[in-house]
Design a protein that fits this description.
This protein is mainly α. It is about 80% helix and about 0% strand. The termini are far apart.
């Protein structure tokens, strides 16, 4: 099963890399450059036609043909480097969530098999048999594996909490800024630039959604383990085995999240709150700009 999960993670990583680094980022960098060159030629070689990929200041005049090519080269390199960092973080988080969900799926399958074994051996479990010892060891092993999966997830969140926080802050600020730009460009009637800014905003929103989507699936998977423990035929087990079940259920009752620093959880509810807050911040910024 885990070989299949490794192949799945590899396929998802390749698809994300192709989509974001080989399609979105090149289009994001090439589009303003090509538009600037087209305007430069059509306007009779006016230096005011040049447009940066993102606003920045330079210690040289970039509104010349040579200066613009240097500026475009620098910005293209920095955008590709930043994109690679964010895609790597996204692949890391998505791959982690897929792998942990495989752990949870394995736990659920083992609990289902264990329940079938309980029903098969129920008449002999009250005796001190080899089957009873094996089933108890299997139950304890499942509980320990579940506990280790929870520790692994919490440790990953603690280790990468600052990274996740930076990602959430960057995406929230970027989306606010881009929505404000779209609103201002719409009032000016600059629909070509609106398309470009909207194209920039789409992958950022997509990155944020993937974070929250896979984090939400991770939380849901841990919640399903709680139900799997409840469905065991624990009430028919010997007393020493019954004592193990409350410990497992109490461990499973606490919701597990992929967390950033503080109380930031990677869930779909968080995504909805960020998007709602973004529209609110955009309205406030628009009022200040007026």
């Amino acid at each position: 099963m885990y070989d299949e999960i490794n192949r799945q993670i590899e396929e998802v990583s390749k698809k994300l890399d192709i989509l974001l680094m080989r399609i979105v980022v090149p289009m994001f960098t090439l589009l303003p450059i090509l538009l600037s060159l087209a305007k430069y030629i059509s306007s009779g070689y006016s230096s005011e036609s040049f447009q940066q990929i993102y606003p920045a200041k330079y210690p040289f005049n970039w509104k010349t043909p040579f200066g613009y090519m240097v500026c475009a080269f620098i910005q293209t390199i920095t955008v590709h480097a930043a994109g690679q960092i964010f895609v790597s973080v996204l692949i890391l988080v998505v791959g982690f969530c897929i792998f942990v969900r495989a752990f949870i799926s394995d736990i659920q399958d083992n609990l289902l098999q264990l329940n079938e074994d309980f029903e098969t051996e129920i008449d002999r479990l009250n005796l001190c048999t080899k089957e009873r010892v094996e089933l108890k060891e299997k139950l304890i092993g499942i509980i320990e594996f579940h506990s280790e999966s929870i520790w692994f997830t919490n440790h990953f969140s603690d280790t990468n909490s600052s990274l996740i926080l930076v990602f959430f802050l960057f995406t929230t600020i970027s989306i606010c800024n881009l929505f404000l730009q779209i609103n201002m460009l719409f009032e000016d009637g600059n629909f070509v630039s609106i398309w470009h800014v909207g194209f920039v905003a789409s992958p950022i929103i997509f990155w944020l959604y993937l974070f929250c989507h896979f984090g939400d699936q991770l939380t849901e998977s841990f919640g399903n383990v709680d139900n799997a423990f409840y469905q065991l035929s624990w009430y028919e087990l010997p007393l020493d085995m019954q004592k193990c079940i409350p410990m497992a259920i109490s461990l499973a009752q606490k919701e597990i999240y992929l967390q950033g620093f503080g109380s930031i959880n990677c869930t779909k509810d968080t995504f909805k709150k960020i998007m709602k807050s973004t529209f609110s911040y955009t309205s406030v910024l628009r009022q200040f700009s007026e």
